[in-house]
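quick q for whoever's on today - can somebody do inverse folding on this one?? i tried earlier but teh output was garbage lol. tokens:
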């Protein structure tokens, strides 16, 4: 069966994130980047599935693990690589590093939980503007331990705001497994505020795309916030070398790798072509970034573009 354009594109997007992140992890020990970094290896289907359903002008709020969200949003790989390297050609002129990426209607912030009041505030603004735009806010399981999360959910529900909360439960907050971190049920944290949700334990980008569409159409219809709980797994360390997980557990989840799952929907030759195209794109992005001039300190206080 010939490969459908939709399957091709979903695989290409996931492969771009995978190879970008693997390259970051390879290059980090060589001291090529400023600050820290958190990669999205293993979680690609979430960003690609959910964000394939956004419209122009929708706002995406991301966290410390933002590269995959940014690339799936449509951000430039060249500009992301350059940002990590602190170059003028970076998304934010090399001033933000890995965690504070801002471009168009995309906002990432490394303060755990701090993203949620920002997302809710922007959703209030969008509701008032009445243009039908929505906010997509990604958060991790560990973020359920931050008190501000619940103030934000309360306001979003009370005011019927157009925000979809995309909880990516990768079963760890840094090195702390969920069972040492979380009392009670995840879903209850949303239903307590009357926020409807869909919960899924899948790495299939097509399933996640359908869930994302449901979430986005709910919030766009004016029916108030919606949550999705996506149980997932990260294959790489929390940040760089800090992995204390049992290798057998990592291997177990690797069997559910979202890439081969989607890759099998492409014919073999097409899949290889995608991989070749992406390989060149990633190599070029890091090569160009390395050759770009360093960030200009006189621009440090210049405001970023975007939300006003
Ligand atoms: C307020 C605050 N406290 C602590 C940290 C350090 N920190 C960065 S990521 C992280 C764990 C995040 O866990 P989770 O929300 O599950 O996201 P994941 O890293 O698993 O994607 C912590 C504690 C932080 N960034 N901000
Ligand atoms: Mg987590």
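ok took a stab at it. sequence:
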């Amino acid at each position: 069966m010939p490969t459908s354009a939709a399957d091709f594109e979903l695989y290409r997007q996931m492969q771009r994130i995978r190879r970008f992140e693997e390259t970051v992890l390879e290059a980090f020990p060589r001291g090529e980047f400023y600050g820290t970094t958190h990669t999205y290896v293993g979680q690609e289907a979430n960003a690609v599935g959910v964000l394939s359903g956004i419209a122009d002008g929708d706002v995406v709020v991301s966290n410390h693990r933002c590269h995959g969200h940014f690339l799936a949003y449509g951000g430039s790989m060249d500009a992301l690589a350059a940002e990590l390297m602190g170059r003028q050609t970076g998304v934010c002129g090399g001033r933000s590093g890995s965690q504070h990426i801002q471009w168009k209607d995309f906002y990432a912030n490394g303060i755990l939980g701090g993203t949620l009041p920002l997302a809710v505030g922007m959703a209030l603004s969008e509701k008032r503007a009445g243009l039908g735009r929505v906010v997509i806010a990604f958060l991790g399981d560990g973020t359920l331990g931050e008190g501000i999360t619940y103030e934000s959910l309360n306001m979003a529900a009370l005011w019927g705001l157009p925000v979809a909360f995309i909880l990516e439960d990768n079963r760890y907050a840094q090195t702390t497994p969920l069972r040492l971190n979380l009392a009670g049920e995840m879903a209850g944290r949303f239903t307590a505020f009357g926020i409807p949700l869909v919960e899924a334990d899948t790495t299939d980008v097509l399933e996640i795309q359908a869930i994302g569409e449901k979430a986005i159409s709910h919030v766009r219809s004016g029916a108030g916030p919606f949550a999705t709980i996506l149980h997932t797994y990260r294959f790489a360390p929390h940040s760089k070398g800090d992995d204390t997980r049992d290798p057998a557990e990592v291997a177990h989840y690797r069997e559910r790798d979202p890439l081969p799952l989607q890759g099998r929907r492409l014919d073999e030759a097409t899949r290889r072509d995608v991989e070749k195209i992406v390989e060149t794109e990633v190599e070029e992005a890091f090569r160009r970034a390395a050759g770009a001039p360093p960030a200009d300190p006189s621009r440090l206080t210049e405001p970023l573009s975007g939300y006003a």
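fwiw The chain has one domain: 5-293. also The two ends are 48 Å apart (CA to CA). so keep that in mind when u check it
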